[in-house]
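Database export, one record per block. Field names are fixed; values are copied verbatim from the stored entry.
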Amino acid sequence: MATLSPELSGRRSSLSGELPGSTDSSMRSKRRKGGWVTFPFIIGSSTLLGLATYGAAANLIVYLVQEFNVSRIAAVQIFNIVNGCGAISPLVGGIISDSFAGCFSVILAASIISFLVRSCPSCISLARRANSQGLVPMTLTAILQSLRPPPCTSLSNSCKPPSAFQYAILYASLALVCVGIGGSRFTMTTFGANQFDDPKRQETFINWFFMAFSVAMILASTVVVFVQDTVGWGWGYGICLAANVISIVILLIGKWYYKEVKPQGSPFTGIARLVIAAIRKRKVALSKNVSDYFYQDDQMNTKQMCQVTSKFSCLNRAAIITEGDTHSDGSLAKHWRLCTTQQVEDLKSIINILPLWSSSIFLSTPIGVQSSLTILQALTMDRHLGAHFKIPASSFPVFALLAGSFFIAFLNLVVYPLCRKLLGWSPTLLLRIGAGHVLNITSMVASALVEARRLHVVHSHNLTKQKDYAIVPMSALWLVAPLVIVGAGEACHLPGQVSLYYEDFPTSLKGTATALMSVIIAVAFYLTAAIVNAVKKSTVWLPNDINYGRVDNVFWMLAVVGTLNFCYFILCAKWYRKQPSKCILEGLLSIN
């Protein structure tokens, strides 16, 4: 990684009218804005905030089964929907930060909301624990008892399900947690990348951000889940609460060093204006004369103009100047009839990336199915390590996170530098994403084979003739190999996708660009819920007790879908052509 010295950001301002000695102080202040000096604050805050948010949801399936008497498949569905909501909310945070609030304000507000919401379940869970020790007033104990169904004393079907009121309280709490996630996860990615002007350093930061966030999820899936399972839910939530508080403190300490990119107003209003202007001028003939197009004032002042390209040429009409579009001095007169050439090219860059973005949805969907079904598999398998330690079922996805963190570091510190040094080139972003597709398919095949082996043990021991949820005499460590493969795939495609979107999207949509990854994850989790629901209704593959089902067929189906999606990705990659980020006519042309 580059030496940790602050980057010089900003341009030297005019010295006219400043008092003697004030210039040096001002320039020193500007020089320490942004760059690597902000790295420990942003990474430290995002890591702790990731620990807090992921720790609250990592053990949700087990919590719903054991504390809310929810059936296992229903718990999986709730888990997928909650993860989908938590993933879609960063898009809202990205839009708000791009439009008017800025990244720092959105991150701080979301962190505070996350802290306030998380403090409630922490207190409730601690109170429940204290209730058994007689430390909480009886009135509080009565209130807490109304928030949970009566505990199950056996695995029989007599367990009382949650009431509508109890479900409402649960869903409301989870919804507020998602609000807290919305302004922190991918908005933090944009905020950190904005601290650098060099695209290579931006890409380096994004890679390190994903590795740090993976570390946070690893700690949440191991330490927090273990505490929840063995010590108590209150102590587990307490760890999340403490991490949330410290993350806010670290974020505020670094405030003096951050370089904040000012929001430029709602970018979606500009997109709507452009589309309407192009429709209104659909009968206007296209022109190759540069003077027929409208440019931004700063482009004219610096004699740098963005020339429209031939791709999606129908949009070029929105920038053609017609009678009445401008004032006599050349300024814009009708905002809904005329746009700048830069706005036209910005929209083209968005349209250009959408096919590749869509191919990533079915790349993430199998991962969502695998992560939830792996927990159900682990619940039926031998999870002991030695005589006294038992791996929590919700901790098994951590192997994918560990693999992802390892391979991100290995690729960035070893593979990519060696490729540049020995071969003179480094794998492109599209090549990295493609490698992620292949590894994802391989992981689904491996999961299908492991599940087939597990079912073989089930039938060979006649476990289907025993009581429900029988433990299979097969080590749950068999589940590790597919998770390691999917983690390696995520190390390739996740940073590659974020870097691709961040580079190609216009400046006004940088926050929205990185939030697109959260949209992919959200849609993937929603599709995961839909797939699980469809499979459960149309087949016998997913009963509540998977010992009676065919989960291996689900993985084989996902492998086929992944293969078809990989073919679609190849077609999209061939069609994709990177748009120029800046236009480059310097003083050779003039506007009349």
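Remark 1: The longest strand covers residues 472-475.
Remark 2: The radius of gyration is 27 Å.
End of record.
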